[in-house]
Amino acid sequence: MNINVSKTGFTAIVWLCGTLLAFGQRIDLKDLSAFKNPSNSWSLAQNVVADLNAENVLKVTKGEGILVNQSTAKKAGTDLYTANEYGDVSVELDYLTAKGSNSGIYLQGNYEIQIDDAWGLKNPSSSNNGGIYQRWDDSKPEAEKGFGGVAPRQNASKAPGLWQHIKIIFQAPKFDASGTKTQNAKIISIELNGVLIHENVELFGATRGAAGDERAKGPLRLQGDHGSVAFRNIEIKELSEIPRSNQNGDADPIYIEAASNNMIRSFVDVAPRVRSVHAISVGGPEKVAYSYDLDNGTLLQGWHGDFIDATPMWDGRGNGTSRALGSVTRFTQKPILAIAKLANDQAKWVADTIGTGFRTKGYVMDKQDRPEFKYIINGTNVTDAVKIMENGQGLTREIAVDKPSKDLYFLLATASNIEEVAKGLYLIDDKAYYIQLAEGSAKPVIRDVDGKKEIIVAIGTKLNYTILF
Question: Is the pTM above the cut of 0.85?
Fold first, then answer.
């Protein structure tokens, strides 16, 4: 039985038939009373937007719900400590960074989980986003002073200005009555953007920049002197028992790599009880991949990190589905036509292929051995070329038609919120990803439809845009 009781600022979760008992606090960011002596580099905000063209810049709208630190080389901020102290603990929160920014989450003030702008990085180190930072010994030779750091298993990082979610299960060090340490601290698990990046990592000592000696309890500490960063949905749960780390189940996992360009056809689940049954997933050495629905010409999802988990498809009898191994960004909640013929830019979108004459023509391979998808709709031949960016920061997409028509439109996104943050640059949903239209593109239309937003644009002869995530 699972009982979930929630009150203002407090959460209690009890698994009576499991191993986890947790009593904790969701920090109410209506003020800074949960923290000790916050400096003026820390403030509360209603909205925060990163500038992708400027280092360490966050544009802030005053309000509440988001905790912001603005730290620059000229005016460095300070670290922020919770008033409460914790031993064994689960820490779960969202954060976003400015471009090129750097910060950290210190468990008990002493063990740093690194936060930084690692967007597009292929081989992260312990000093990159999600890494367990190094320990430090000034008595050693210069090249050996830093030691013991642990890199994340893969780079599951998102772009600056996008919300990232981290969940940490931490086991505190243990001490006897005399104060002698009897057991080292341990990271039971860390999940970054839904990806397990650490599991059962013993911490033999405090990391560099520790607040003090190791102890049984200590505050959560947010680094504030290295760069601008924002946090929200901070939930801290003290654990009376340590849960098991993530398990893969009884099946031996079947993973598919994409050291070079690679493709796999499978079912792809894009939402609960929503499945694309004619999907192709494409990955490459850039450590970026995507899934495409052939029945609608829909780009389903993209991700950073490793390629495909084919276990559910090939283990035993299988169910035909594959799963992304990296940090997934969903571009749609269901496969829906990407192109429609509309009487005007306010006409209702055509949700399915009935009456459109839609017919998939498969794909052709370009000179770099990457697919370009082809289909016919409303008598128009379409070429849909989705390409992984060489810098690993996202995808480019070119839609070309053989019969230009002023009434042919392209659905860029459907989302709860769409915000233009710079010329031709749009934040989609709750800062989930960016869409950037190529210079010279037609001006898109953002419209309200059934409580959501749609952004559509006339295709003309050709449409080019970039998806950054």
Answer: yes
Specify the CATH number of the domain 2-239: 2.60.120.560
Instruction: Give the C-alpha separation, 458 to 452, whole Å.
Output: 20
DSSP track, 204-253: -SPPTT-SSS--S-EEEEE--SSS-EEEEEEEEEEESSPPPPP---SSPP
**CATH code, residues 255-468:** 2.70.98
Where along the chain do its domains lie? 2-239, 255-468
- Output the tens digit of pLDDT for each of the chain's 469 residues: 333 333 334 344 333 333 344 556 899 999 999 999 999 999 999 999 999 999 999 999 999 999 999 988 788 889 999 999 999 999 999 999 999 999 999 999 999 999 999 999 999 999 999 999 999 988 899 988 999 999 999 999 999 999 999 999 999 999 999 999 999 999 999 999 999 999 999 999 999 999 999 999 999 999 999 899 999 999 999 999 888 755 455 678 999 999 999 999 999 999 999 999 999 999 999 999 999 999 999 999 999 999 999 999 999 888 999 999 999 999 999 999 999 999 999 999 998 889 999 999 999 999 999 999 999 999 999 999 999 999 999 999 999 999 888 899 999 999 999 999 999 999 999 999 999 999 999 999 999 999 999 999 999 999 999 999 9
Rounded Cα gap, residues 48 and 67, in angstroms: 10
Whether the CB-CB separation of 353 and 336 falls below 8 Å is answered with: no
